[in-house]
Each structure stands twice: as C-alpha cells, then as structure tokens.
Amino acid sequence: MGTDAAIFRAMGKQAAMRTDQYNSRWLNDPAFVHVQLIPDSLERNDDKLYFFFREKSTDSPHSPTLYSRIGRVCLNDDGGHCCLVNKWSTFLKARLMCSVPGADGIETHFDELQDVFIQQTQDNKNPVIYAVFSASGSVFKGSAVCVYSMADIRMVFNGPFAHKEGPNYQWMPYTGKIPYPRPGTCPGGTFTPSMKSTKDYPDEVINFMRTHPVMYNPVYPIHRQPLLVRTNVNYKFTTIAVDQVDASDGRYEVLFLGTDQGTVQKVIVLPKDDLETEELILEEVEVFKVPAPIKSMKISSKRQQLYVSSVSGVTHLALHRCDVYGEACADCCLARDPYCAWDGKTCSRYSASSKRYAEGRSRRQDVRHGNPMRQCRGYNSNANKNGMDATQYGVEGSSAFLECQARSPQASIKWILQKDNSERKKELRSEGRLLKTEQGLLIRSLQLSDTGIYHCTATENNFKHTVMRVRLHVLSAEAVTAALLHPEAPSALASQPAGPPGAYDELVQLLSQPEMGLINQYCQGYWRPSGSAHSDAKDLQDQKRARNRRNHPPTEELQT
C-alpha cells in the first residue's frame, strides 16, 4: 500500500469529498504548488477549482520522470450515487508543457513545476497563468517561465480523453462514445441546467470519470515556447510574482523571480519581430543576510512593496529604486525600468498621471528602445561629467582592484588606459595579468608601467559614456619595503625616482601615523605568492556576494 495523496474538501455545508483512494491514475505522489478558483462563465454553477502540481509518471515506475499537471474539479461536485461516493466525480487533469524546441525537432522539457502566479485581467474568467519550471537532470539543468491562456487550457479539457490501448498498451486519444453529460461538466451549469447534482449523473458517466481522468493533449504555453529560460547558471527559479506597470510607451509586465540562492531578479521581456523577445534583467537583489531559498512572494500595489519569505523569515523590498540609476538622464533612460523616468533633475518614480506636472518638466522614458540620444537631448553632455574620479595606490608585485559598475545592467564595460603625460589611450584587452569581473578590473602582479589613468566606459545602444576614472599610482616595492622596515626614516621614499612627482608624499604621511600596523597588515595581504592569484579573485567575488547588488552581464575572464 503506497502513499495516499488526495485533494480533500472537508469544510463548509457540502459533503466531505476526496480523490479516489490509492488510484495512481488520479494522483501519483503529487507535490501541490497552487490552487485557484476560476469561473468558466457567468453561471456560477460552472465555477471550477484549478490545481497546479507535479507528480511522478505512471509510465515509468522505476524512473524519476516527473510531469507538471493542471487539474480541476467543479466547485459544486457532490460525488456519485453508487460509484465514487463522497469522491470527486468531475476531476480531470492534463499535462502542463514547458519546453524548448530543438533544431532536430526534439524538445527539451522543464518538467518540475515550482510556482504559479495568476495575473488577473479585466475579465475574471480569463486570467493569465505564469508558471516557473525547472529541470534538474544529470545532463541538463535550468529554469524557465512559461505563460498560459485560459482559452488554451479550456480547449484541452474540452478535447479528447487519454486512453491506453493497442499491443503496446500506449496512450491514445479515446475514440469511443462519450457519455452524456460530458465527463467533467458541472451540474446545473450552462450545458446541464436540468441536473442539479452530480448524483444525478448516469452510472456510465461516473464510471468513465474514474477510469479516464487524464486528457490526451497537453497544455502548451503561449507561442509554444517559454517566455524566458535560464541555463548554465548556479541557481534555479523557485517563485514568481508579476506586476503590471504603465509606462509612457505602454504597459509592461515586470517579473519578480526568486531563486534557491536567496536572490530576487527583476525582469521584463520586450517583444521584437517574428515572435522574438528581448529579456532585460533590471536588478538582482540578495534579500537575506544568510542566503536561503525564496519560498514565496507577494506584491502590495498599495504599499509598492514586494514581500519575500524564506525559512529564515519574511522581509520586504521596494518595487522600484529609481535613485540607484544615478543622476544622469542617460543612465535613467538606459536602465529601461518602467517604474522610473527622468524628470529633468533626477531619475524618479513614473506614474501615468505625471505626464504633465506642475512645473512642466518633461518626463524622459524609453523602455522599449532605451535610446538616450533621442530622449536626453540637452542632458547627455552631463553624462561624462558625472563620471566619478578616484585615486588609488598599489605596490609593485601586488594586486590592485579598480572598482566600476555600470548603472544599466545591459551596458557593456570597457577599460581604457591612458599613460601619464600622454594623450594616447589604449583599450585593455586579453592579458594574463588582467581579470574583468562584475565589479571591476583586477590587475595582478603590478608593474611600475601600470601607472596611469584607467577610464571605465559603458556602452549601450551606441551611447558611450565614462562611468569612472581611476588614477593608479604604482609604488616601488623596494622603496615601500624600506619604509616598512625603517618607519623612523620614511623620507627614503622621496629619493626613489619611480612614479610621478609627489607620488609618495601621501604614503610618507601614512607611514608616520599610529595606524602603521594596519598599513603593514594591508600590504602583507597584497604580497601573496603569485600562485594565489586565482584565490584572490574568488575571495574578492565572495566578499561582493554578501551585499545587495545590481545584476550585470556574466563575468568575463581575459585569457592569455
């Protein structure tokens, strides 16, 4: 005797109900994800309760094959009168398909349903169904989001029933006579006004329901393909919430996707030509101090907050943080966040009612194209001026990290080196001592010739601007060592010819401070064996991982 999984009705005025006991055709070790009441028509007797779950396949009892399912029962189901007494007599289920078609015609399936979000529309009979799936096989791993329409779902439930026949006992569409009323029809509804209860159904209807609970056709997503897919990443999606946002160029669905690594991604998917789409990750936030899988999320439109839960607790995030996009019109436009627009001074919350507001300031926003050349005329000259300037010191033979993050997650970053006393600029390309990360540029085994101005530039949609300028001074290892060994005579540094005039002045002042021990420890941390360079890069990324961050394109390592 196996596990007795069931869908129960145990409260209310109606009789207690459940699914057929120990019947693997109905349920086979299911994991329920979501349940939703969705009306079928204006007649309330047609109302149905929809269940979203995953279960083991009965076709492969010795394999871990899973199927994602959508099932339903009539809300006014009273069970049968001789068969299926106190058991659902309208229960049906269908496979929920989410797959990527391959060039060879073979589909790659995401079969593990993780979460469902019901996006209500003006017609409560036709909400939009968003579902998160994952695949965790030994060959292929990833996550996907698929979107379904109620029209497609109803078409499947009104289609052929699955039936096993033939010499190999394979699933086939049932071609025999369908009893009346059609199995799965609700009593007293649009098609059965004379039948007030499922107990009035003929025995052949009830018997058919018990042996044919599965629909032959699966439910495919809109356009028969996922809305977005993630593969070759170290996380999977666990939850989803969707918010509808009105922007100046239309309405957008903003997806909030929780992961098993404790992060929440904020994503929009823009339509392009020929059913192609463009996915934009607007932001990624680490929610909890100690990372834990995100279990559920709820949107509060009134408070403009996203409530997030994990095993460690519950917290909330703002749906929009327009200030993180900077103080330049170009950065605000390139972010392409439908919540935000440039108001003439800052990047701030956009609302449809603020298209014309008191001071007459123009709201600049272009979610679909993100074109600052068109949207930010008269403001673009400030983009490069707003680039930050920094001065940084490094010691010959050690490592230096030049931090730079683009405001827009879609921007590509380039590093340009300008030597002192020279107007020539050189783009830094593949070199063994260089490592580009999400957060900036790591230079290993510094050389005196690395001294110069490093320009961090961001390019997106043919718009290029400077994000950061770092003046790097590389100090002579011999001079610094001498100063550390003889701190009472740091003036020896001043006699070193390496470096630009005054390059050691600030270091001389530092060495004479009481915090000399901390500086010594800092320098020793840099003077690691060259074999630990890879470890340095990993430690650096681990340190960055513990804070809230904007998401950027994957880390690119420069090869030798």
From TrEMBL:
| Localisation per UniProt entry | Secreted
SUPFAM superfamilies named among the record's database cross-references: Immunoglobulin, Plexin repeat, Sema domain
List, alphabetically, the Pfam families matched. Answer: Ig_3 (PF13927), Sema (PF01403)
Decide whether keyword Glycoprotein is in the record. Answer: yes
Sorted keywords for this record are: Disulfide bond, Glycoprotein, Immunoglobulin domain, Secreted, Signal
Please list the residue ranges annotated as the Ig-like domain: 396-462
**GO molecular function per UniProt:** chemorepellent activity; semaphorin receptor binding
Region span, Disordered: 358-387, 529-560
Basic and acidic residues: which segments have biased composition?
358-369, 535-545
What broad class describes the main subcellular location of this protein?
secreted
User: What high-level taxonomic lineage is stated for the organism?
Assistant: Eukaryota, Metazoa, Chordata, Craniata, Vertebrata
- Which parts of the sequence belong to the Sema domain? 1-319
Question: What is the scientific name of the source organism?
Answer: Eleutherodactylus coqui (Puerto Rican coqui)
Coiled-coil blocks: none
Could you tell me the superkingdom of the organism this chain comes from? Answer: Eukaryota
Its recorded name reads Semaphorin-3C
An example of a Gene Ontology cellular component annotation for this protein is: extracellular space
Belongs to which family? Answer: Belongs to the semaphorin family.
Q: Which InterPro entries match?
A: Ig-like_dom, Ig-like_dom_sf, Ig-like_fold, Ig_sub, Ig_sub2, PSI, Semap_dom, Semap_dom_sf
Question: Cytoplasm as a keyword?
Answer: no
An example GO biological process term is: semaphorin-plexin signaling pathway
